[in-house]
Fold these 3 entries.
Entry 1:
Amino acid sequence: MDEPTSVLTPQAVESLFVTLRKLAADGCSILYISHKLEEIRALCESATIMRAGKVTGNCDPRRESASAMARMMIGADIQAIRPARPAAEARRERLAVRGLTLKASDIFGTDLRDISFSVSSGEILGIAGVSGNGQQELLAVLSGETTLASAETINIDGKPAARLDARQRRALGLCSVPEDRLGRGAIPSLPLTENALLTFNRDEVLRAGFIRFDTVRDFAERCIQQFGVLGGGPDALADSLSGGNLQKFIVGREVLQEPGVLVVAQPTWGVDVGAAVAIRQALLDLRARGAAVLVISEELDELMELADRIAVMAGGKLSPPIPRSEFDREAIGLAMTGRWEAPVPTTEAARVHST
Amino acid sequence: MLWLSPLLAIALTSVVALVIFAAAGRDPFSSLVRFLFSPLGDLYSFGELLIKAAPLILIAVGLSVGFRAGVWNIGAEGQLVLGVIFGGWVALNYGPSGAPWVLPAMLLAGAIGGAFWAAGPAFLKTRFNANEILTSLMLNYVAALWLSYLVFGPWRDPMGFNFPQSEPLAPAALFPIIIEGTRANIGIIVALLTVALSWVVLSRRLVGFELKVTGLSAPAARYAGFSARRAVWIGMLTGGVAAGIAGVGEIAGPLAQIFPTASPGYGYAAIIVAFLGRLHPVGIVFSGLLMSLLYLSGDVAQMSLGLPSAITGLFQGMLLFFMLAADVLIRYRVRWRRAVPALALEAAR
Amino acid sequence: MNNISRRGFMKGAAATTLLAGTSLPVLAQGEKLRVGVIHMGAISDTGWEYFQAQAWRALQAEFPDQVEVTVLENIAQIQDGERLFRQLATQGHRLLFGTTFSHYASLRKLAPTLPNSHFECCAGIEAGDNLGVFEAKHHEGTYLTGIAAGRTTKSNILGWVGAFPVPQVIYSLNAFMLGARSVNPDVVLKVVWVNAWVDPAKERDAVAALVAQGADVISGSPNTPVQGLAAEEHGVWAIGSTGDFSAYVQRGQLVSFELDWSAAHIEAARAVLDGTWTPTARWRGLGPGGFVKMTTASPELPASVAAEMAAAEAAIVAGTLNPFAGPLKNQAGVEQVAAGTTMTEDEIKGMTWLVEGVQGTLPTG
């Protein structure tokens, strides 16, 4: 099995493990591939660890510590995440969404239903949920890829923004990282410099309307250096990079623009442990500098590590956010099936889209 | 690597040409040399090469702006005809005054005419998502009929024995000749200026990048906030303006009169030129010259090699065919494998 | 065809300005006269380009050892004609033929600048500096076919498929009508314009429309077998106007005439060889050395009608019959040509009105 839990709730993961253990007890051999060390430790009896196409170690995961296995995976010690302190200044609301309802344009899409929330400076709001419950639609609405008729539905730093396109929203300070890296967050056939220009293109990059390619190139190099993007430098084509390195580049590109509001989807999807740590650190640092950060992720562990509050999406609705002091895997997992206060039909809420 | 395939295509076409010449009983190498170089033999012929290449380059550069953004304007032929109509109107009404502003006004009017004709498909695309390939193509026929009406009707030369042609244009409405003893006129300079301008805009201004991104990936363009509608308008209008100016160039240049068949199909040939030139302004200069050379060579084939003029169409077709094939082969690797035995296939299921 | 009496032909030419011809240096001993011909379309087995090609073929046959012909076909673009004529001239072609009116404008510009070669343009309007023109009196052919049509029709309705309303087509159909009325005063002629020189689909539709209006003899100006075949399908007679299509239209073609430009080519070449070429305008119809030739007739054509046509032909050749002799009225019944006068050649060449009895209008105003 290859990463079987990426679209499952914690409860569903638990019952999957029960089934797998039963199968193994009946004499079935199971090869389980995952980058989630806790799953391996909980499930497996022996582990082979690979890095960059090579086997780097063998162990009994029940006896190894997670950090020892992580060292084998990335070949270096993991830097512990140091949650930087939020800015001491008075919190102010930077991103506010009020009564967002939107019919899906795609027949396989999910309608968004009456979503309201806000994110303040120095805060990370996590949005959890099983894939296909409206996260993609919400991201498109927030980034500006989908625009709405009523401008007041979305406010960025108090300015109505729902009718603005992505570039206009970026001018107001909202940057975003989509979950599709190739073909959306970056263009496969273009070099990194031009991929930097994709979103790094406001006034400071232009001189009398002409692109200052040296500025863009410097910026791309900064992304590459600060985020440890491996693979060829600013002239390398986007599709020549590994998924993890490209993700670091895209996150770096958005974070280095110092947005007031950053909306990120699946920040560490398919990224190796070392890179994931670096990306999470960057998000925390951004928060410490007073930005409002919204993280949409299917990895609950990640959200629990990063977020100050977590809300859950199910069936196109958003639960009330839970503050960090009340984080509880069980409660959040239950909410992923759509059961928070007003129960919705479970069949609909629990449906999982393969797209 | 992709700049290689036009060169590869030219080489392969030349090889086939050698085979064809040999099969026709001619000495292949001297025939090929004559085929390709005799249109360049003297200054006059060189001028002919340039005046045929100029409209092709001009239109192709205009079209390439749209093509980069995935805007498929197939209506350059009609937009060229509108340039003839609008520019021709200025020439017929104000040309006899001899005023120095007549020629610039013709160019402006031609540009407006082409843009006007391109605006229809752009509007239908952005407003109703109507396929611009079909709408722009169909307008070609409307434009041709409109010009026919004018030349058969109100614009017919009263001294022309009722033949469908306008009065000859006044000298003030004609492009000055830039090379003495040839027909090469300032239309060539107009084309080169357009190439330079579009090169700068496409490579150095954000709008060029916007168009490129829109053509490469619609989701990425939306994510970046580059408007698809804007791309459609810019792409269509640029093609229309360029074709309209090229239309003025024909009546103010080699024709010097307005005929119902003012366009010799440059609007379509320019599509090939644009792709052969890799949608790059400099590439288009070369492909435009090559295309023009092929036209002239076809005449040479008839005149001195005794081969049918259809050979021009054959070579143009082969050039495009080989280039598309080379593109595929450069991008993908062909692997020859023995047929998988049926049993293995069965087992694989 | 070889028996050319030059005096007769030069009459028309004398009417136009004769520009002083510059004699070429006499060709060196044994040197061939190189002749260039440019066709706009492809040379096929019938039609305009075919008759043009027949002319230079006749020229080759006439002077097998003295003349060499270079032929360019499919030069559809007007922009190209000028360049190619110039190229042929600079390559040493001493006599150049344009085959259509579309070549006329560029040849007028070009001919004076290339004094070492001489130019001839078929269907050109008037001779110019170093440029001769030749055109056929189509109306002499259509007048005769009109006689056959007027005698054959039972409905007294004839049909004409018009290409473009240019004078050449207008005087052709007018003469057709006049020929028919000369033997049958009750006849009318209906005209449908297709606005194309060749467009098989529109030509078929036009024939069908004419038949639906009662026409039982169809003639027209686009010169392809399409109309004849369509007429045959509808069971009405067709006329091979400017082309004998009896090889295709095997039953339904009543009579036909062809255009024969051989004399134009041979005379011009001979004049160049002799060093006596001058720019002339030659406009000829029936008769020896003429450009219009009556060809086949259907076996069903009564001998009396054939005799009537032959008599008219003889009278035209003798100069005693002119199709455009007055009195002639236009469609509205207003007299255009008074009794006792005939239209001048220039008037015929510029004809823009339809004679009485023609039903239909000119498509543009």
Entry 2:
Amino acid sequence: MDFLQPSTWDEALAAKAAHPDAVPIAGGTDVMVELNFDRRRPPALLDLSRVAPLTEWGTDGDMLRVGAGVPYRRIIEELGGRLPGLAMAARTVGSPQIRNRGTVGGNLGSASPAGDAHPPLLAARAEVELASVRGVRRVPVESFFTGPKRSVLAPDELIAAFRVRTARAGEQFAKIGTRNAMVIAVCSFALALDPVRRTVGTGIGSAAPTPVRATAAEAFLVAELDWDSRGAVPPGVAAEFGRLVAAAAAPIDDVRGTAAYRRHALSVLARRALVWAWEGLR
Amino acid sequence: MTTVDQAVRDGIGTSPRRPDGTLKVKGEFAFSSDLWHEDMLWGATLRSPYPRARIRGIDLTAALALPGVYAVLTHEDVRGAKRYGLEIADQPVLAMGEVRYQGEPVAIVAADHPETARRAAGHIAVDYFELPPVTDPEEGELLRRVPVRTGDPHATADVVVTGEYEVGMQDQAFLGPESGLAVPAEDGGVELYVATQWLHVDQKQVAACLGLPAEKVRLSLSGVGGAFGAREDLSMQVHASMLALHTRRPVKMVYGREESFYGHVHRHPAKLRYEHGATSGGDLVYVRARIVLDGGAYASSSTAVAANAATLGIGPYEVPNVDMEASVYYTNNPPCGAMRGFGAVQACFAYESQMDKLAAALGMSPVEVRIRNAMTAGSRMPTGQVVEGPAPVASLLARVRARPAPPPSTLDLRELPGGVANTTHGEGVVRGVGYAIGIKNVAFSEGFDDYSTARVRLELIGGEPAVLVHTAAAEVGQGVVTVQAQIARTELGVERVTVATADTTVGSAGSSSASRQTYMTGGAVRAACQAVRATLLARVGGAGIVGGKVVNAAGLVVADLAEAIGDEPIEETVEWRHRPTYPIDPETGQGNAHVQYAFAAHRATVDVDVELGLVKVVEIATAQDVGKAVNPLAVEGQIQGVRHRGWGWH
């Protein structure tokens, strides 16, 4: 197995163009597990850990651009105030050691339906910045995933960053696990309420072949929320929102949980997250 | 009666630091997976991908052709007994014509690099013919049925509760995977360094399979990373020895985490059907129970597991009429065997659930109905055995009940069901409190000749009295090394005690299991120390050892301890046995099967998110009668550890 170790972004893109079979590796928290268990033996690894710009983040107006190599720990510590939903999700990833190593870019690259970062990125309408020697393109997270562990990423492309509007409040993330920490999601839900634009964003994890939005639930809530006076959410509205979120999922029975439990849990999480997010704005 | 020196430092009743503690915390302890030898080869195991299949052929050509491969062996290379087992020799060293569970070893490889060995195993071509596996124990072949019957089988009662319970498989998941090093010896034998629970039972089985006399198979205990029953059966011991003898090179084998789950037995899954009858006042009248245990593909310790389930299966209660049957069956599921509290804990889940049901049916408190029926010293077990030791069942329950209730949740996410995964801020959360008590036998039962051997030597080193304790007791993390030294210090009044590495150059200590090692090897060390002391005292006409002096019956110093020892070291070896036990009647289960019993009462306080089914264990209060705590800190460690085992078993 070849081990490619570019030190600049241009070198990384050139290496990926020359070795489209090379598997990019950042924190290694997914890739190394697969290698160690012999589930995958790629012809080459492309180590991105020396490419400094990948670990940087910056602002562009009220937009944030976060390098694909920023680990979860820094998302929590440095961006918790600007991206509260993503920070909540990052806090549920693995152990402290994993959060030191694992990156949002790696999560996107693996494109698991259970990836913890995906629901908050969906809810916040984030964009993924993809780059290759051919140029740069931006893809809405919603269009990024094409199937379980599949994405629109071309063989010569690398994930450079994600771009997202800062939120400060109105975001929530909740995840069900088979225990209370260090677990892969049985299902998860993210919500982003934007009181300025009066938009509602949702993201469902681990309950469909890809992370998905609950678009009908979003539209329902945009119409029903009392945006002007910010009055409390009527219980009937919260319940219907929960029902619509559950209906948007396409879960399966597997070792972590049944489809029926996932739908039920999503309706509960959506209902609760709505109340918390709305209270955060009042 | 001679006196022992209670003043000696780090003796019985204190909690001296364990010798391996700091090393383990700092990551410097050498586990069996850290063993190394000049010129050693690495072993790997090819395992069956199928739970049940016929093997029509095995082609080793491609594996042997890989550079760096020194040996590829199958069952044809097993020189001695082709099968082994703790109670019944039914498990093939390497599969012979069929495989009976997924993960069963089929062939073994030695190569100059672990990766090469692993790859070579992948190059072995096995022609399997898949067969439908038996996965339901009630469709499997019966391995043992243990009935226990007493009183009137047709007894009736005012209040009757029934229940059907199921408990799943559990894995010991010790942190240090199966590993060891086999070194071929000049006499044609083998030196085996392994992490195990019982060196001598390994020695007996390994020697039989290698076709060697026991004295040519010499075992030394290597650093054990946890055991919990999973190291009672053989794993890599015969395989590494075969490869070492074949290649005439040292061979090391280390299972990975995933392979480890195939490498040892698990806790038996069980289905338990119970019927409890009681008077309207809450006195138990009868218990009828049928327990079905899934033994998996091979016997391991299944027969003892079934006996424990049957003989302890109604719990620590007085019940005049019992109709109990525990049966264990062969299936094509992973083999099940020893895990902490085997047999007793499966039944405990069922009988304690029944006691809660009964309390609800009677309108009594769950603690009250338990206390009302609690056995005491002098009670008669359903096997007819009279409980002779202390049985403070009611008192243990009263103690956990009397503990102050834990404070209400602060609603910090880390204290809530779901934790920081943020599933509730208190919504749907209710607090439940549950009680349970369990009974377990201590040491081996049913007439087994259970003993331990200790060799104790008292000598002068650099002019100072020093003690060397040598036993084959496996230190598996429970602290038996520390305890042996404590006992020797107190018995001989000498602080300087060394505990030699456990190996087979001393007699068997029995297994580090069944809660027996402090009692049994501790007892053997004590007896050997007493023998040493008797010789010493006789030498100078003393009656006791106090503060480094030998004193007479009047308490007057007759000699310095060092003087008494002089240049004549005293060494004694003692085999120590607990009182005998007896087989039980195969039809009625009557008999004095057990040595003694231990009891543990718990009160669990648990916050439950009733909408999501998530839980947060707030507190578990535990009360156990531990007898004399030889090392109080180690006792606490045992209780905490086993409580987490139970906690994880849901």
Entry 3:
Amino acid sequence: MRNDATPGWTLIFAAWLVAAASTLGALFFGEVMHLPTCVLCWYQRIFMFPLALILPAGLFPFDRRVVRYALPLAVVGWTIAVFHQLLVAGVIPEEIRPCTQGVPCSQTVIEWFGFLTIPLLSVIAFSTIIALLIVTHFRSSK
Amino acid sequence: MNGKWVFAGAAALLLIVFAVATMSYKSESSDQSAQAVSRNKERLVRMHSPTLGNAQAKVEIVEFLDPACETCSRFYPLVKQMMAANPNDIRLVLRYAPFHNGSEAVVAVLEAARRQGKLWPVLEALLASQSAWAPQHTAQVNLVWPHLEGLGLDLERLRADMNAPEIVRIIEQDLADAQALNVTKTPEFFVNGQPLPRFGFEYLQQLVDRALQGT
């Protein structure tokens, strides 16, 4: 069986697609639409952008250990994204909001279909990447 | 299927989508800002707006300026040079867009100085000393005063005038006009009512040159 025909390869490839699309999407929001980038968004970018580069390194040739290198980034990014989402949803109270000056992270700049905000997109993207990485780990270790 | 080709194809596709989305977004938003101007012609120049240069000039540059904006201070001498190179042909209309924190108070200083006939020298002095009174992109009106020395201002009167309701109204009106005209960053220029196609001094120069050559 060729390297790139294993299910692991396809899963990592899918995770990369999500990371690359998220990276370009974040750049589009920031650099093209000139939406203000709040502090939490920057931290999420810090953990998303490297994934777009690290994951392909595990594809050629396929190396399932890429999961070990990518997963910590994805988990930390996911944590920040969830925190951000809770902040926007108002679950986390006012006092511990970290960015009151400059661009408030609790401000909603985009809302598609009535519910899809940028922080929610981020939660979805990180969750998908984590799920794909975990499945890769168990599938390939068999 | 060869993984390398799948990957390269997907990467190329993503980049193409990004490029196409960027181009269509940009052309759409420049259409929108042109429409915003044509819908709001009366908002471009107000009776209260300070002007510089020949009232009959064939080229009118409307500039939305924030005294605390670094790029504004870099553009200002260039605009002055353009006006000096074409005496009597260019008129500058000043609109305020105090987007920086604390900047509204500095605009009030400008308008109060205008009552003493010193708007332009004060504007030039403030733009030149901007880094001293607007550290970290936050305008601090308390730091402004030393830079106004030697301009022959009655500072006591100026401080009292700053809170005049007319001045407050001018600032509110300019901010409302900026919003209606889609001005979100400074400096923003309109040459004979036309917005810049893209931000940059060369685009301003092109529009002005074209307007100068026109009728």
